[in-house]
Amino acid sequence: VTYSIPFQADCVGNQYFDLAGLLCRDCDSVSQVKSVDGLSCQCRPSYKTTRNFGGPSTTVECEACAAGQVGTVDGWNCIDCETADCLNCNAGDIGEEYSIAGVLQGTKTCTTCDAATLPDSAGIQCERCHESFLAVNNDCTCNTPLVGGLCFGVNEIQAPAQDTFQVSYEALDAPLSSWYYMEYLQAAEAMCRLYQNLTACQMLGNLCVLLHYNPNSLNDACGYFEAIRGASATPLIGDNPDWVVYMPWLKYVADPADEILTEINIPTKFSAEPTSEDSTLKLFVAQYSATGQYRGLGSVRGGVIQLCNDTEKKMNAAYTFATSYSSSCQLKAQDLWNNYETTFFDMYLQYTEGSSTVLYAVPVLLDNYQDDGTFENRQETNTNWQLTRRFFLVDNVSGKTASNTPATVIRYASSIELLVTLQDEAGQTREGKIYPPLLKIQYSELVYENDYDSNTEVTVNFRVTYEMSRDYGENALSTALGILSGVGVVWALVRSNAWRRRAGLIYIDIKTMFKFFFFGLGMLADVFFVCLFGTTLYWLFFFKRQDLVYLVLPHKAQEVSFIWYLSFAFFCKSLDVLHLIVYQCLSDVFLIDWERSRGRVVQSSDPGSNKGSVAPVSIWRTYFVANEWNELQEMRRSSIFFQMSAMLFFLEVIGLKNLTTMDPRSDVYVDPSDYTGDPSRVLRFAVASGIYLLLSLLQWIFFAFIYERFIADSMRNFVDLCSMANISVFVLIDNTFGYYIHGRSVHGFADTDMKEMRDQLKREEDNLCGQRGLLPNSEQQTFEILLPMKFREQYNTILQPLDGVAARIDGTRGRPDAGRNQEAEKSIQAYQTMNRFLAAFLDHGIRDIDYVVKDKLLLEQILDMEFYDPADKGFFFNDGGHAFDNALFHGNESTLQLFELLLFCIVDLMFTNFVLAAIITYIGSAFLLKVRAAGGRANLAKKTLVDERFLI
Amino acid sequence: VTYSIPFQADCVGNQYFDLAGLLCRDCDSVSQVKSVDGLSCQCRPSYKTTRNFGGPSTTVECEACAAGQVGTVDGWNCIDCETADCLNCNAGDIGEEYSIAGVLQGTKTCTTCDAATLPDSAGIQCERCHESFLAVNNDCTCNTPLVGGLCFGVNEIQAPAQDTFQVSYEALDAPLSSWYYMEYLQAAEAMCRLYQNLTACQMLGNLCVLLHYNPNSLNDACGYFEAIRGASATPLIGDNPDWVVYMPWLKYVADPADEILTEINIPTKFSAEPTSEDSTLKLFVAQYSATGQYRGLGSVRGGVIQLCNDTEKKMNAAYTFATSYSSSCQLKAQDLWNNYETTFFDMYLQYTEGSSTVLYAVPVLLDNYQDDGTFENRQETNTNWQLTRRFFLVDNVSGKTASNTPATVIRYASSIELLVTLQDEAGQTREGKIYPPLLKIQYSELVYENDYDSNTEVTVNFRVTYEMSRDYGENALSTALGILSGVGVVWALVRSNAWRRRAGLIYIDIKTMFKFFFFGLGMLADVFFVCLFGTTLYWLFFFKRQDLVYLVLPHKAQEVSFIWYLSFAFFCKSLDVLHLIVYQCLSDVFLIDWERSRGRVVQSSDPGSNKGSVAPVSIWRTYFVANEWNELQEMRRSSIFFQMSAMLFFLEVIGLKNLTTMDPRSDVYVDPSDYTGDPSRVLRFAVASGIYLLLSLLQWIFFAFIYERFIADSMRNFVDLCSMANISVFVLIDNTFGYYIHGRSVHGFADTDMKEMRDQLKREEDNLCGQRGLLPNSEQQTFEILLPMKFREQYNTILQPLDGVAARIDGTRGRPDAGRNQEAEKSIQAYQTMNRFLAAFLDHGIRDIDYVVKDKLLLEQILDMEFYDPADKGFFFNDGGHAFDNALFHGNESTLQLFELLLFCIVDLMFTNFVLAAIITYIGSAFLLKVRAAGGRANLAKKTLVDERFLI
Q1: A680: helix, strand or coil
Q2: Nearest chain A Cα to B98, which residue?
Q3: pLDDT for the residue B573
Q4: Which of A313, A620, A623, A656 to mutate to probe the B interface, most B CBs <10 Å?
């Protein structure tokens, strides 16, 4: 069995298309021809049908008429002919076949039609001709002008001027003589002017709209329209002088644009609650065909004015209040020529006031409008705008140069934007109320010879945007930024002054200025972030949670200042972090070994007189502690991995990123069939920052209260290690300020074997020995220290011969060098001297340079500065055990996290991609850590004289 | 100026709608009424129009007719009345107003129509009545049955049986008496049977389709249809006995379904190349209205048979060859009732053969088809399926019980699936050729009283799926899996035998079985992964790159075995990794301190006779080395962060995930307006694995050739450290197999001060001392070791008293314990003994237990086993410097990375979310590392007797 049939699209010759078999079949070649629809056969004109039940050709029976007869037009009878072939009746005559009662006449006679009638298309009956003929001549002849198929009196028609039928296109150099205007303009004008024909008036208006409301001629459609509209006697619709009865309302002439656009007559309080009645813009359009026929008044929903086709649900999302909508697509030129009917729209906003429903006219801002060559509607200020009413989407009629040729040029609405502005009253937005919406339209053109055959694709877009006449709290933001920046600068001053004292400087010098600069940058970054976060969080919460809409988001162009502020904050924070790294990597560190030699070593075999050599103190404890300190330098108090992956989890997996679209919807799950709005930068910032801060808080709680208490506190472990190794850590982060970890072993010595170490540990566990603190009977091992300048001078004196030695040793490693040995010697010397000096200082063993241990005042703690002047004595301030964190990344979490947060947001701002932002932030953070680790390692090797090979 | 107008939707009373002002205006109350369209006024019947140019009411002039006159029907004249009011002519009479020539008659006369005519709707002219009347009676009366507006002879109509007008619905308990059938069935049947009326035959067919082709009655539409079709004389279309001329083809009766579905008559070679002619399925449908009118033959493109509306581009994507398409949406019940016209479709596939274009009939599998109560088309095998031809999308006519009520029940096509099967010939797919497609349709029903008012939302879906009759290479995959698994098991046997020797076991015991089990799991995981990756990569490349389509992807149901295989591989790999961790965390480690005491320590003040005490050897070097070894345990040779973020970067940011959709498109960028197919699991696995492996390779190259050479090689550094610290590392990973790092200082001692250390380093740099190797004058410091069982026994003997000591010490730390001191003592004792024992062994100082250093044979290296039996002597095999990595994660990268890869893919398989997969994989990997670190640390503390507090 064959299941295929030939594909026969067009039946040729005398074949009809068999709709059951989808085949072409022959009509009887003698008696039949195919019917007009091509789906059946009918009898030829000289035959009469004797049987036709709508069956195939074979069931249609035809009978040839007798000689001298023809078939009637309906095909059911034969009739004698009066003339030779029954066809050549005179013009205005019919060939009568049946009487009015359906009785077949004996002969088909030529009969003259009544004066008021003309033959119908089949030529068998007379029909009344158009009233305009009768009005002029009282019969169906027209000796006076016949335009557009209508007949007018001698002086009733406007004589065309040179520009009457011309349409200007931007795409053409010279205006085009339009067949469409030639055909219809005069008739429409006359019908409208003389008889107030409703359709003709609409058509005249349309012809003016197609000229882009050209205001500069008296003899074109717009000139004619204005002449009729302006005639003194014409009554108005309501009190609107721009809208006269029976004519379309085309332009706003009575009021200036700025007044029209700030009318506050729309009482609807629009809501963001999806279930509310007033959560959509109820826009209606009255539609008219190009020739003026009324096509009804209906909602714009369902994509009536959207050229981009999409699902109805998505297209209707454009009218959900407070949803910034934007769609864009490509249309094919040939579709624009063939598949769009030119239709005109008058737009209204429907609202209910009390029990009555009202339509409020929506003004149109036609971008292409020209007055004497200037594009008035492209001006920035709206005072000179010419608002209009009627618009179209595609015009493929005005460019025709003949009735049956396609238009030489077509126009299409390449950009449509509905701009909705929220009302404000003395700076206070009136909740949910709006000014009249404004429809901004821009037309583009395509030229047949360039674009039709190549089927050019053009982009059209449709947008709905919302604005507030307020400045989006920008003033408030600026004010907050100003005030807080001032406070920040003052604080930076205080901080830099505190630093000056710590650096031991008496006067404010260039270094202090630098410090002030960097402190200032850090503060400004904080201030900017706080303000931006506050503002955007306000937007997020109040935009997403509003019932009556009183807040709309800034659109892309208005986000510029936000972007600048954020970029500035990021820039400042970057410099701040850079400063932190350099600052920490230049600090002075020294590991004080308290171990003394156990005495002199002698061999059993030595004679008693041999005093032996001094037993060396093993350096390995120092290596161990330095190595651990080096590891602490790379340590963070938060997990950047956790931070980033949790961000991605919440944003991408849970879907919080769906909160950042420019619509008031606050669902985390978005149905793919729903319209998804463009992302809003400010919302993305708010959501990302919010989650980031929450996660930071969570991490802080975890690390501070769980991890460090119950799992592992690296800082505490390090202090323990120091105590066991009998080594103190002395860090000078500024010239005279720093941190001290007292690691002197309570057992006096630590450089011993495993058994001894175990014993020591056990003794401490059993509380059989003294406490580890610096002061007798105290546990306090860690201190902030502020030292007199004299100390620093001494310190520098010891280090002086060493300046650059370690570096040089490093640089020359492996190469035999004359001076190298000597330098190494010097450095060892300096190390020993420094060790002795610091040990003596801590043991109060140095005259003139002494210290006291005390608690910091509360205010000192809060301000992170010292009130006492260490002129003669240094101060050791008891701390909470963690102060020395500040010399490490570990104690500067907030700065680093803020940097990472800003980096995340900046990257997202650039690429609108959270995944990429997370990856780059992680890389950035890891890079910082590596830099800090490398710098810190080099610094540690240099300052503690521990070879870098042991810092692994 | 007021810019609002009242909203007037319906004009009431004698008002017309002013289309210019969108207002209701009054018609003249005396002379006018509103026109039919409501947009203007016209004169009342008793008036004649004297002026009407289509203007507003005021411009329409009416003139009352004189007494006894009425206005003509066309309104332009008044005419005298013959009867009292000119209305009551007899039935079949007209009131004549004008002659056929348009001349107004003097009086409106009642005139009887000719026998073959009836009055028109206005009653002013006679028109010919339907042929069926004339056929029966030769005039326009019908005394015989009048059905559906047509007249038939006495015996020409089928007398209805009980079930003739009944339609059964699944939603209703009892069949429904359908108004639609009552109205149309008899007339359609009679017209089709008697006159072969083409439309009537189509309608009869439609009525049968609406019964779901019910084959069980002779007196319903299907019974009638079959009777006419089966009449002996009816000619066929082509050689198809199911398709008789002039009637629709409804069912496939001639051939069984399995033959129809494996016809190979479609010659088109379909292509996946988008530019090719044959890259789309050219499906056509012939459309018929419910009453049988032909609505044309056209392409299905543009969503003709898709109930889910979407953009045309997306809807047309359904017909792109090899694109698995699926769309689903919700429709509202009221729309189904009101906005869909019941239309019938016959589907064809168009193809070109030579110069002729052919339509190939596409069979329909109607899910709801019942034969005697059994759903034959729901059977698994297709031999008994009843294939049909015609289908509809929505049926809202058959359920009507009266002409003007909505249908009681409606049906809609809730699921439509077009199944395209690729041809195969003796197991070999013929490139690009297909069997006839099959359209599977399932209808659901809605009941008016339940669903209309609540406007129930129903889900409909439309799918296009592709199948191969081949088993998707599953046989090949199974075979490969079988063979390779066999090889894997053999290899596991070899490995476990090698292990047995290393463990010093002579017989195969339960432990060896366990080892074999775990080795086997690991091998199976590798084998499964390799096979799956190979298969899916094959699919990816050949599906995405094919020109002529010879491969389609398995659809969801066919992915089951893939999922099982992958899950099994993951399960095996997980156990393998677990085994690795436990294995490594139980290894024996000992740090041999080569340092000897420097002698006896005496104080300067001591008398010469005081021999002093033995100078202790500091334990800190051991602590340092142990600490570093502990850190090495946490080290990986790849960055999981890099791996995951680069994965996300390529998949999500660059967009490689767009390759994983079930269409042959291979673009990384997907236009949002394009259709995005469902993700394919196998493609996701292939793409993710492919990128993962590439990135792993990249990382390996980076680490092996760049990082470790030029930046930092932790393993090398550790070996250096050992040498400087004068400490050797002795690792026994199995009973008698392990690794040895020779760290004996070339300077003889290392426990010294900074000066000495510097000197030592310098001497080595200047090549002034011996080489570090174990053998004299060699550099070889690292070895694989295989020791005799005697050694192990000795080793165990030393450790025996210690069993559990370290653990107990740990457990009791801080609590005074009677036995504790003693145990600590024991452990120190053991430590010292062990140190001495191992040092002596390495110095060849122990009789009976000795070793030789040699190179491993190439085959030994490749197979990772030893051929020699260390019965009397141990072997130290020179290695490449990195063999001891194998005791760490660092040397087991491939196992770990494969585990991570499988974890990534498994998570993605479950959640279809690469971001989540990356996060979870990172967490999993970090968790493994933590477990390894914690276990390793505890083990290290226990075995080397270094207190855990120093392992930080």
Answers
A1: coil
A2: A100
A3: 94
A4: A620
